[in-house]
Amino acid sequence: MDLTELTIRQAHEGLKQKKFTSVDLTKAYLEKIEKEDKEINAYLLVDKEGALEQAKKADEKIKSGDFGLLCGIPCAIKDAIMVEGQKCTSASKILENYIAPYDATVIKKLKEQGVVILGKTNLDEFAMGGSGENSAFGATKNPRDKTRVAGGSSSGSAAAVAGNMACFSLGSDTGGSIRLPASFCGITGLKPTYGTVSRYGLIAFGSSLDQIGPITKNVEDAKIVFEAICGKDKMDATSKDYKFEEFNNLTSVESLKGIKIGVPKEYFTKGIDSNVEKIIKNSIEKAKEKGAKIIEISLPSVEFALACYYIIAPCEASANLARFDGIRYGLSKEADNLLDVYKKTKGFGFGAEVKRRIMLGTYALSSGYYDAYYKKAQEVRQLIKQDFEKAFKEVDIIFAPTSPIPPIKIGEKTNDPLSMYLMDIYTVSLNLAELPGISIPVGKIGNLPVGLQIIANKYEENKILSVALKMENMLQ
Amino acid sequence: MISKQEVLHIAKLARLQLTEKEIENLQKDMSAILDYFDLLKKVPKVEVKTNFLTTANQRKDEVFKDNNVVENLIEQAPSKKDGYIKVKSILK
What we know:
Chain A contains 15 helices and 13 strands. With about 475 residues, chain A is α/β, with parallel strands linked by helices.
């Protein structure tokens, strides 16, 4: 038995039945990482000693008999989420030697459960990108096809799970950064409702959009991790008093009877790869066969979602990233006066995409342009929210593609930022409307995975997970 | 296409040092992206609520907790002295 292929549930059962220990599991993953990751580049840091120590502790807890589902399970953490005492770089030169001064709330929660943290995973610098290629420490390759990208920005978190180099991982999603790489790597990624998971200890990108969530081998695992990390946190004022409750409206194991699934007509007009479209339509057809009612819906304002997102996110980023000025964190470039220290540090420390977004955001917020860009985008954001509110009066859940295209080749779009942004066309609306969504694998073009995005109203992760589980069962 | 002067003006506001090559690339890339944003001109005029976020301000108690977070934070500053972060003088 290859221990690295197990899901959380399977590994937990194995630990319970004393078939293997957490140390065995951890060693199996560390060996796999050592063997495979030179090529994939999913990890920026592997904490061998720390992981084995945590595994030993978990084994003690397991011996006592009183332990939860995540105890002793090896995981990987996106390097934008702080783990105390470990480097946290956000894949940027500016934070190359930055040591996390405290645990993010999600890490605290996972540690309380007794997880084993194998290491920190690669990402697009400051989580800005859709391919993973914007990392200052090299792109992550897709384990399904090593000539292609893993998807971004949580590239390493997705590749680690897809390549069996972690049992599960945490990513963050500002405009699709969990769902897109999950889709590209053929695994499951859940972007929770804004506010259900604390952002404390996540290096900020777009604060009204950022959300931490799980990347896992299947839907059940996503649920297990989500339940462990959600809930109100006094350190994040935007976190909500949220408690996960089972969705009991779907009683039979297989059937989707009684569920109304909305399919936005705007998502199937132009720009979608015909093979992706075929696979998504096929899974919608399958849901129909299992008793779901399929309803065509319209989200007229989603046409503007991408433009809206690429104004709001860079605006927020330009404010959030102003703090990396060479005074309080990491890199500092010598200069004669304070202003030049700022300029030189940022100029040297940030990569091309981060600079592009800071410039875009600063432009959109600058005098004379604010009304045309930032204010307009906020209005559009409101319209998009209203579109979804209206849709959810009519349907329970929405099915959509996660990405319009299958995983791209490494280097394919690096010189064309706008065409790279277009990969986010189906994912950004959820962040703008604060909605939850999951991407699950539903088919392949050759060996390239295609993800289905399942979207629900706010705080209805339970509905998403329940429907996703049924889709997963029927497509296997 | 946006001008070199505009790029330099924005870079100044953003306190970002750019190379000649970067300025050139940004002129090209920002222009293409800003052209795409023209799409928003198609958005119908709307009456929109001014409070864009549904989350209201929330306060938390400012209680100092004696753990080593403060020390850890200061430890990360590139230049420090006696538990304070050191910066260059602003006034001459």
